[in-house]
Amino acid sequence: MKNKLNEMIIQAEKSIMSCKTYNDVLDVKAKYLGKKSDFNDLMQELKNLPNEEKPLFGKLINEAKQEISKLIDEKREELEKSKINDLLKAQAIDISLPGRDFTLGHKHVLTKTVEEIEDIFVGLGYEIKEGPEIESDLYNFEMLNLPKDHPAREMQDSFYITEEILMRTHTSPVQVRSLLANAERKPMKIICPGVVYRKDDDDQTHSHQFMQVEALVVDELTTLADLKGTLLLIAKKLFGENREIRLRPSYFPFTEPSVEVDVSCFKCNGKGCSMCKSTGWIEILGAGMVNNNVLQAAGYDPMKYQGFALGMGIERIAMLKYGIEDIRLLYTNDLRFNSQF
Ligand code: DAH
Question: CA–CA separation, 189 vs 174, rounded Å?
Fold first, then answer.
């Protein structure tokens, strides 16, 4: 009987070892520990044993059963573990794979140029102002010393909405608005970046809509020397430390004297090249001392207050800085162009 028991344990062990699935384990369990298991036959045999041997064999049978049930539990656990491991393997993420590329957008070259100009002025203590793009004839022209019949109005062909209302042709009306708003006559240093409109035919260098930055400084001690110093600083910041500037006499109705400002060519350092048309100089903006008529129209006493103003075309600055040859490229949003900056 003892042999039979050992034989059974060895057999059970073998069957358990060869189990591949949980169901296999259940079958083995039924075979060895179930109601119709081989142990039941042994229990029958136990009855026929002499009484003094019964306890010993009873104990042996129980131990054998425990042994087998332990093996079954272990196998079940092992199968469960390997099932989880298989599942984990199947769902494994390959962290060594390179991630999917995504392209970061960036600011448009015009926006970048505006922000660069703003930063320079803000660094000098200027405040940024805004004005409406739909403007009155009064602010856009008349109060800037451009009365209705003034010939200089022809320089800025305008989109009129009514006889008195138009799309602003420049950012200069913000000068008028800022002067009028400054009832306390506090010293003023402002810039106004913004879009302006002119009835021009679009071509390589013209657009019916473009951007300007206006600057205005007014207090009791402003001179042409302040304007000159400011212009030199701006030229250096925008086009490099080695830049020089040159002021040429010019005419704008809202400034007197008026100047056009050239910067020494940053491509050839003033020697003469295709960029500066062999002159060594590149025109970048218009400026001047605020005309007494403008101050007066806004209620300022020109004997007490002076100021300077300047206006620059942002597209022109961007085109010069980045070597862009057609202004229309700035508006057509061709990614091949936009992504270069
Ligand atoms: N408003 C002028 C234009 O659009 C540019 C300009 C010139 C503005 C001289 C100024 C200035 O403030 O002083 O052509």
Answer: 12
